[in-house]
Automatic annotation (TrEMBL):
Residues 4-61 form the PHD-type domain. The keyword Transport does not apply. Signal peptide: none annotated. InterPro entries: Zinc_finger_PHD-type_CS, Znf_FYVE_PHD, Znf_PHD, Znf_PHD-finger, Znf_RING/FYVE/PHD. Keywords: Metal-binding, Zinc, Zinc-finger. GO terms for molecular function: zinc ion binding. It comes from Photinus pyralis (Common eastern firefly). It comes from the Eukaryota. PROSITE patterns: ZF_PHD_1 (PS01359), ZF_PHD_2 (PS50016). The keyword Zinc applies. This is PHD-type domain-containing protein. Gene3D superfamilies: Zinc/RING finger domain, C3HC4 (zinc finger).
């Protein structure tokens, strides 16, 4: 049977399971005499509570303001930490998804090359495809000993406008074929019209664009003998009089 004691406010009996005890004098008070809300009483009954209850005789403030402020600040810090952790986890997840998507896209494009500067002929669609294939095979034969059997070709973009020809995407038989052609692309005449590039993703093109802008700014600031060279398939600004500029 629970013990019975006197309420320090009304002096009536109070059951132990319906009382609050002052954290200063340890005297019991009816929960109904405490003047606290249900939520506040629930907080005080929590074993891990961080606030103290003082009776009217010990303090005019039932809740110590300093402890309450401290608890609120701690809770704020905990909430901010949770938000930060949640945001970080979400950012990491998005980053991983984007990275996987980019890797898959690069893998799909790894056996492709883009040939720029091949004239577009007139005639039927079939005639145009035959002429495009003939020109592509001719370029490949000049660059490297790569099989052109079963290759696929596509003109990129809409129909050609005046004085502008569409590049051709070439899907080769293997990634090794694409690598070999890209390594030997300098064998083509350096007239600026006909050249070969890799089939790059949007991210790769944007990165190359930023590298070119950096190169331009450095040259404008007085640096010389700079060019862009592909190192481990990454466009990099190098300082070399003999470096062969990257064609992209």
């Amino acid at each position: 049977m629970p013990s019975i004691s006197k309420c320090n406010v009304c002096a009536n009996n109070v059951d132990a399971d319906k009382e609050l005890k002052c954290d200063a004098c340890d005297k019991p008070v009816h929960t109904t005499c405490s003047g606290l809300s249900r939520a506040e009483i629930k907080c005080l009954n929590d074993k891990d509570r961080r606030i103290k209850f003082l009776c009217e005789n010990c303090s005019s403030d039932r809740l110590q303001l300093g402890d309450l402020v401290k608890m609120m600040l701690e809770m704020r810090d905990e909430i901010n930490a949770l938000k930060k952790a949640s945001s970080s986890t979400l950012s990491d997840a998005i980053y991983r998804e984007n990275l996987i998507s980019e890797m898959n896209e690069r893998n799909l494009r790894s056996r492709n090359i883009i040939i720029h500067g091949l004239d577009e002929c007139e005639g039927t669609i079939e005639d145009q495809k035959k002429e495009d294939l003939r020109q592509v095979v001719n370029v490949i034969d000049k660059v490297a000993p790569v099989s052109t059997d079963h290759i696929m070709i596509y003109r990129l973009g809409r129909a050609a406008m005046k004085d502008k020809v569409r590049p051709i995407k070439v899907v080769l038989n293997s990634r090794d074929d694409a690598v070999l052609l890209l390594k030997n692309k300098a064998k083509l005449p350096r007239n600026g019209k006909l050249y070969i590039t890799a089939d790059e993703t949007l991210m790769q093109r944007e990165f190359l664009k930023s590298v070119r802008l950096t190169l331009h700014n450095r040259i404008q600031n007085g640096e010389s003998n700079l060019t862009i060279k592909y190192i481990r398939n990454v466009p990099t600004i190098v300082s070399s009089k003999n470096a062969t500029p990257a064609q992209h």
